Structures are given as structure tokens and as C-alpha cells.
Amino acid sequence: MKPMLMTALALALLAGCGDDTLDQQDAREQATEHTCDRAEACDLVGSGKTYTDRDDCEVKVSNAWNNQWSKAECDGQVSSEDLDLCLGAIDVTLCNNFEVGVAALALVGQCQQQLVCSAE
Questions:
Q1: What would the DSSP string read from start to end of 40-59?
Q2: Is the pTM above the cut of 0.85?
Q3: What span, in angstroms and rounded, lies between the C-alpha atoms of 68 and 63?
Q4: Environment class of 89 (CB within 10 Å of its CB; exposed 0-12, middle 13-18, buried 19+)
Q5: How confident is the model over 83-94, as pLDDT tens digits?
Q6: Is residue 9 part of a domain?
Q7: How many domains does the chain have?
Q8: Which parts of the chain sit beneath pLDDT 50?
Q9: Backbone angles phi, psi at 100, to 5 degrees
């Protein structure tokens, strides 16, 4: 392959990598979706349960993630790689641990603000 063609190909690949940071709202929405999916899998959604329905879960959980990941500290600073680790941790959280709530989940493990909002 000719050197100029290789250089052009390399630049195209690098350009395709894009920015790997998200804003706080996008991160919060993704975390809310994963958290409520997990809450449903753990049978915490329904009449007489932690969340009365999916909407109730989404409102409460979104507010909790919003409090955990401050907009001032996280907006434009969310590492997509670190967020993926957090989302994966939510997805595999044991149901008996999941019942302690979002605040406790965010304070331990992969979902701490200083880990998720670490992009430079």
C-alpha cells in the first residue's frame, strides 16, 4: 500500500473514533434505563413494591442519578468507557443488594461520580 494511502486510511480511522465523552443528561438517562431494567428483573416494580410502575421507577431513579452525578462536575466529562463499566455493574447487581437503592449503588463500585465523570 502506498504511504499516502496508508496515512489517509489511518486519519480516517482516527476520525471515526470520535469523542468518547457524554454529557450528564445522557449518562443519567442510560443509568436510569439500566437501573429500572434491573429493578424489574428483581421484581421491585409493581403494586406494593419499591416502584409502583416503570414511570415511577424512572422518575425516582433519574432524580437519584441526577443527585449522584452533579451537572457541574459531570456535564461533558462522562467517560463513555467508565459509564459502560457502571452500567455493566448495575446489570449484574444481586437483587438483595439492589434493594438498598441507587444512592448506595453509586457510592460503591463502578458508579461513583469521581470514576464516571473522569474524562479530561
A1: HHTT-BSTTSSBSSHHHHHH
A2: no
A3: 9
A4: middle
A5: 999 999 899 888
A6: no
A7: 1
A8: 1-18
A9: -75, -15
For residue 6, is it within any domain? no
Task: Determine, yes or no, domain membership for 11.
Answer: no
99 within 8 A of 50, measured Cβ to Cβ:
yes
* Domain assignment of residue 63, yes or no: yes
Q: Which domain holds residue 107?
A: 19-116
pLDDT of residue 94: 85
Fill in the DSSP letter of residue 35.
H
What span, in angstroms and rounded, lies between the C-alpha atoms of 72 and 44? 31
CA-to-CA dists, residue 76 to 30, 37, 69, 71, 93, angstroms: 15, 25, 12, 9, 27
**pLDDT value of position 46:** 96
Q: What is the pLDDT of residue 1?
A: 46
